[in-house]
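Retro notes, structure queue

What went well: the backlog is down to a handful. What didn't: a couple of records were mislabeled last round, so from now on we paste the full input next to the output in the thread. Example, using WSC-domain-containing protein from Parathielavia appendiculata:
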Amino acid sequence: MQIVLALAVIVPAALAQTFYGCYTEVPTRALTGSSLVNYTTMTIPDCEAHCTGFALWGLEYGGECYCGNSLAQGSFPAFSTDCTMPCAGDATTVCGGPNRLSLYGVSAEAPTFTPYPVPEPVTAPEYEGCWTEVSGVRALSGASAFSATAMTVEGCADYCLNSGFTWFGLEYSAECYCGSELNVNSTLAVEEDCNMACSGDVNGVCGGSNRLSVYQWV
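Corresponding output:
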């Protein structure tokens, strides 16, 4: 009698997955539990499987995968357009961007994050007028962000406050600049010079040509 053994095919169980959005990276890594780098075949499922046992995982630069149970200080939601790099192993999907993580996790709720601190408590942004850009340097020289399709006053406000800056300005419809104060060489311009609609909100004003719509968190 011939005995035939049926070999079971092991199929990995589907893992729970929630996409939280695009998050900023930090110099010491936003997720520090484990990592996997593969610039030729990386996919979202590959990263998810590698990070089994962790609450969070994120993909960056198209081929980098990082795992952790919480975000390091300074990692916070960024503009969605910051995460546009295709995954190395599946060009139809997105695996983060330069210093940006496409962040996933096992919880339905987005993870808590700890922004960089500001000198004193603030509650709301206050408009300070239309100001000139400074030749050779920036009127606001801290962090910066750009979004050709998603920039809004509110988005820039949150980005700069989370980056630890209380001053922010919007320019050329899609540019956001942050700082602790305005450069002393920046001067107040006529309000009509700030006449460009925000790339992500046609009803919002985001500066002009070499002109900043300036706000301060107070």
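Agreed that this is the format going forward. Reviewer comment attached to the example: The chain is about 10% helix and 30% strand.
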